[in-house]
Specification:
alpha+beta; Beta-Lactamase; 6-stranded antiparallel beta sheet; 5-stranded antiparallel beta sheet; rod-shaped
Length: 462
């Protein structure tokens, strides 16, 4: 600790000031001609043997540039600049031996024997004093007003150089980040399964992937710098609007976004045309905005859609032809069932008469009654032959099974057929009655199902 000396105190915004000093990244950097020129000019204008650009750290003052002094730094405790950074204006000490802050300072009482000091604070745009541009002499000294003003201007130039240096470093870092981002973006664009092109505000292609080359037949060099509408037929090219984007105008910032892509016609280098779908979005940057467009060849998709539509039309035409025939078959089947119902009743009556009254009639009466029964059976066989089996209509509704007829519940002729088939085939034939069938029609359908020799049992759905 230096006896009796008054060391410089921290500033009122010391934490912010030190953060600002670190932000400029100046400490312990090599000498730079831009700063050395200003230091030499300050010494020359002020007529002093020593001039410094001093940056005050937490515990030291470090000299970015120096004239007439070999040391590169001193402790902050003995620094003159540690006092100067407390103000906004030039701190001038004509004779250090007469100033109570410095008269016993080691830099005054010993080498380099400072007797004169004048320091101009280096103030950042946000008001933090990082250090000073100072001049010193080994004898008492007075600056003229012109020298003071010149030292002030030089101090501002030092700060401008520091700002410029910081900006250059930031730009270099941003440029490096941009190059890395661009490299990653190119990898992503190149790996895309579809053609991708990037277009600037004027509608010029600035980037394209290999899939674009394959799809349109152009090399990347032939695409870069060309209007994007070269990829479209002449009839689809629009007069350039103010933004020059043409068909991609909808992708500019603020435009209403479309959920689906836009289907257009693409134009290859060889002049052939093919269907494409374009989806585009904008990317805004400080340098403007760009449009990234994905272009997909939809030739196969359109071919499939066309085939599906053709099949739909053909199916509709067949439906129109089939529906009248189905109605005719259904009506024909209904008529057959309506005819057989009374016929079955008459046969049953004839059988009953033969059984009940045969013994009460004479020979001629029995013969006529038996002849009637025989003719009715032949008529029933004839009707069975004409109306072979119930028609299975493709348009009937899906119905639940209401009842399953066993062979015992069918008429005797049907039962014998079903029982004989049971020995060979256990398959089930389902007779479906359409909506509106009466119970008699259902019974008729069950009766006539036995014309199919594959039947083992009859399931009636209503």
């Amino acid at each position: 600790m230096i006896a009796h000396m008054t060391p410089p105190a921290p500033t009122s915004t010391e934490r912010e000031r030190l953060a600002a000093l670190e932000r400029y990244e100046m400490l312990d950097t090599p000498a730079e001609a831009e700063f050395d020129d200003l230091t030499a000019l300050a010494a020359q204008i002020c007529g002093t043997p020593i001039a410094l650009i001093s940056l005050v750290d937490a515990r030291r003052q470090w000299f970015k540039s120096k004239v007439g002094l070999d040391a590169t730094q001193t402790s902050r405790e003995v620094s003159f600049c540690g006092h100067a950074i407390h103000g906004r204006h030039l701190l001038e000490v004509p004779n250090t031996l007469e100033e109570f802050l410095f008269y016993d300072n080691p830099l005054v009482t010993g080498a380099p024997n400072i007797r004169f000091y004048a320091g101009m604070p280096l103030t950042t745009p946000d008001g933090q004093n990082l250090g000073t541009l100072c001049v010193m002499d080994r004898v008492p000294h007075y600056l003229t007003q012109t020298q003071r003003e010149a030292l002030g201007r030089l101090g501002r130039q030092v700060m401008n150089q520091m700002e410029l240096r910081l900006t250059i470093r930031r730009l270099a870092a941003a440029s490096q980040d941009l190059r890395e981002l661009e490299g990653r973006s190119r990898l992503i664009v190149e790996a895309a399964p579809h053609a991708l092109v990037m277009v600037d505000e004027q509608g010029q292609i600035i980037q394209a992937n290999s899939r674009t080359e394959q799809l349109f037949g152009y090399s990347r060099d032939e695409l870069i710098g060309q209007p994007v509408e070269m990829l479209l037929p002449e009839r689809l090219r629009r007069a350039k609007s103010q933004n020059g984007l043409g068909v991609f105008g909808g992708a500019r910032p603020g435009a209403k976004k479309k959920k689906k892509g836009r289907e257009l016609t693409g134009l290859r280098k060889n002049g052939t045309q093919f269907p494409i779908e374009i989806s585009a979005g904008s990317v805004s940057t400080s340098a403007g905005f760009f449009v990234l467009a994905s272009i997909n060849d939809v030739t196969e998709r359109q071919r499939m859609l066309s085939q599906i539509n053709r099949l739909k039309r053909e199916l509709k035409q067949k439906d129109r032809k089939i529906e009248p025939a189905d109605h005719q078959r259904t009506d024909f089947s209904a008529a057959a069932n309506d005819l057989k119902s009374p016929l079955r009743s008459i046969i049953s009556l004839a059988n009953w008469l033969v059984t009940s009254y045969a013994n009460r009639l004479d020979g001629a009466g029995r013969e006529q009654l038996n002849l009637l029964a025989l003719k009715l059976r032949r008529l029933n066989a004839l009707v069975d032959g004409v109306f072979a089996c119930p028609v299975r209509s493709r348009s009937h509704e899906a119905l639940e099974i209401a009842e399953v007829f066993s062979p015992a519940e069918l008429p005797s002729a049907a039962a014998s057929r079903v029982r004989s088939r049971n020995l060979v085939d256990r398959s089930l034939s389902e007779i479906v009655a359409g909506p509106g069938y009466s119970n008699e029609r259902v019974q008729n359908a069950a009766d006539e199902s036995v014309c199919d020799e594959r039947v083992s049992e009859i399931a009636v759905a209503v």
